[in-house]
Amino acid sequence: TLGAKPARMDSAEKMSALLSLGDLQDDVDELKELAQRCLRPTVKAMLTAECERLELELTTRAGMLTGAAQASLARGSNPAPARAPAPAPAPAPAPAAAAKPKPALAPKAFSSGPAPVRLPNGAAETRVSYSTIASFGWDQDGYGKDPQNVYVHIMSGVDGIGQLKERVSCDFSKHSFDLKILDFDGKNHRLFKDNLDKDIIPSESKVIVKKNSIKICMRKAKGQYGYDSWMDITAKKTRNEDAAQGADPSSGIMDLMKQMYDDGDDTLKKTIGEAMMKSRNGEPDKFDDKPSSRGALEDLDFGHGPGL
């Protein structure tokens, strides 16, 4: 009847079942190997659970295959009684042209097997959250030393980090560093600084992990007149702004005067405001012998009146 299962497995089905068992066994072996290498407890538990599920499926399929083989042997030893021959049917008329038989489909070389397991620590699926390291200090080598480095010190909140050096990494670029500490005290920690005050040499920079502290050593890149002194760990202006200032020297004077006005006290603001007003009115002042400075003052726009 239609929809009935065949009484026994043919050769193609046996081949597919054997290959499927082989794929399952390979998956189980690989999951066990990944679980042994895994450091994260949660990920290791997930891999172990998936491994146990596949082992159960492997045992079930192997049992089904063994039962089918035993049933086939039993039917071979006890053949069913032969039926009485049916009367021969009347010969059918010969067909006009014999239909070309369709070629038999060869068994697939590999079974699809179970769906692949997507590991939670895969690169494409990684979404790691970090806690920002807020407490750190920095210093630099003094004048005359060659080569010179800039140092970043992390001494708070990292007690015992020396026993977990393999969890600390730091990536360097020409103008940034990215320190990461994975799975320390139940969190992932990060200190990322971009737009460093001056350029560094990434290949000669490194991170040093001590017993209860971390030290980042960044090798300074030489400037036009040697090693520049850093004013801060990061620059206030972006590199695009610095490049524009280099193309227009007068803009540097304007920026300096505006910064002095913004950061100065009331007396300095009053002095700069009065000088700017005199310059605009053409009155003599201390900038008369410096046309470039007077021009810069005339171009300044502080957004409020002089002396305020």
From TrEMBL:
Q: Which residues form the CS domain?
A: 131-234
GO molecular function annotation:
S100 protein binding; tubulin binding; ubiquitin protein ligase binding
Gene3D superfamilies found in the cross-reference section: 2.60.40.790, UVR domain
Q: Which spans does this entry mark as compositional bias, Low complexity?
A: 95-109
**Compositional bias of type Basic and acidic residues: which residue ranges?**
280-292
UniProt-listed SUPFAM superfamilies:
Calcyclin-binding protein-like, HSP20-like chaperones
Q: Pfam families from the entry?
A: CS, Siah-Interact_N
List where Pro residues composition bias occurs.
Answer: 82-94
Region Disordered, annotated ranges: 70-118, 276-308
Question: What is the official name of this protein in its record?
Answer: CS domain-containing protein
Q: Which organism is it from?
A: Phaeocystis antarctica
What high-level taxonomic lineage is stated for the organism? Eukaryota, Haptista, Haptophyta, Prymnesiophyceae, Phaeocystales
